[in-house]
Amino acid sequence: MTVSTEKELLNLRDEIDSLDQQILKLISQRATCAQRVADVKMAAGADNTQFYRPEREAQVLRKIMDLNPGPLDGEEMARLFREIMSACLALENPVRVAFLGPEGTFTQEAALKHFGHSAVTVPMSAIDEVFREVESGAVAYGVVPVENSTEGVINHTLDNFMDSNIHICGEVVLRIHHHLLVSDVTRKDKISRIYSHAQSLAQCRKWLDAHYPNAERVAVSSNAEAAKFVRGEWNAAAIAGETAADMYELSKLSEKIEDQPDNSTRFLIIGSHPIPASGDDKTSILVSMRNQPGALHDLLEPFHRLGIDLTRVETRPSKSGAWNYVFFIDFKGHSDSDMAKEALSDVAERAADLKILGSYPCGVL
C-alpha cells in the first residue's frame, strides 16, 4: 500500500468518525424529543394513552424511503429508522407484543421486523392465546400468521376473528428462508432424523427427497421446537430459520433449502384499537351471506361497481347454522373513505352479517 493510499484511507476514516459523532448527537436529540412526547401525552391525562401509532410510523417510513438518496436501498434505510424509532419508543413506553411461540419462530421474527428489537416479545403456545392476551390487555399487540405463499391460508387465524372483537392494526410480509441446522454434537454423516413444523417439511420436500431421502421426517409444533430437539441428538437435524439458529446456537449445514425461492408468509398485527388512515391502507372485513342463489355476486358487485381493488377473498365454513359460508375479504383503502363507506353500506344490506376487522397501513417493508 502506497503512502498516498494510506493517507487517503486515514482521511476517510476521520470523516467517518466525524459523521458517527453527528449521527450519535442527532439520535440522542431524537430520543430526547420522544421523551418529551411521552411527557406531553401523560400530562394530558387521557386514559389508555397510545404511545405507539401504526399509521404515524408507516407515514414516517414511507417518507424516509421516498427521500432516501442512496447508496443504501430504501428498504434497508427504512429498517435502520425502524430500529431507531423502536428504541425511542421504548423510552416512552416499551411495546409488549404477544406472538405464536416458542421463541425463535418466524412469527417472532415478524414481530421484531415490525416493532423493532426494542419491543418486548412474549411467546404464546397457540394462536387463540395470542388473541386472548390482546383482548385482556396483558399486551398491546399480537402477531399471528395468516397465509403462506405456497401452503395457503392459516385457517385457525381466520376462525379466531369470528368470535373476537380484536382489530387488525397492520401486516408484515416475511420472506421465509429455511436452513438445515445441526448442533455441535451432530454427526453430520449419520443424520437419520429431521425435525420441523409440518408446513416447513412440506415447503422443503423436494430438497429433502434429493438430499435425505431415507431420513425420518418428524413434524413438531414449531421450528423452534425442532431446534431444541437437535441440541441433544447426535443423529438429528432441524429445519428452521435464522432466529432459531442464533437462539439455540446451531450451525447451518445447508442454507435456503426451501423448494420455492419466493416463499413468504403474511402476518397480521392485532390490537384493541382502530387505526386512523395513513394514506396507503388496506381493510379486512368478515361477511356472512345467506345460502341463496347469487349470494357471491351480490357480495362482490358493490366493490366492482365502485372500482375498489379486492386483494384477497377467502371462504370458511360458518360456525352458525344461519348461513353456510363466511367470507374474509381484503381490499385497498381505508374504511373511513367515502367509496369504502358506500361499498360497505351496500354489502351490509345484502349480507346476513358484516364485521369490519380493521383498516391498517399496507406493509411498508
From TrEMBL:
CDD domains, per the entry: ACT_CM-PDT, PBP2_PDT_1
Localization per record: Cytoplasm
Domain called ACT: residue spans: 284-361
Keyword annotations from UniProtKB, A to Z: Amino-acid biosynthesis, Aromatic amino acid biosynthesis, Coiled coil, Cytoplasm, Isomerase, Lyase, Multifunctional enzyme, Phenylalanine biosynthesis
Gene3D superfamilies: 3.30.70.260, Chorismate mutase (1.20.59.10), Periplasmic binding protein-like II (3.40.190.10)
Every Prephenate dehydratase domain range: 96-272
Biological role: Catalyzes the Claisen rearrangement of chorismate to prephenate and the decarboxylation/dehydration of prephenate to phenylpyruvate.
Protein known as: Bifunctional chorismate mutase/prephenate dehydratase
Biological source species: Litoribacillus peritrichatus
Chain's gene name: pheA
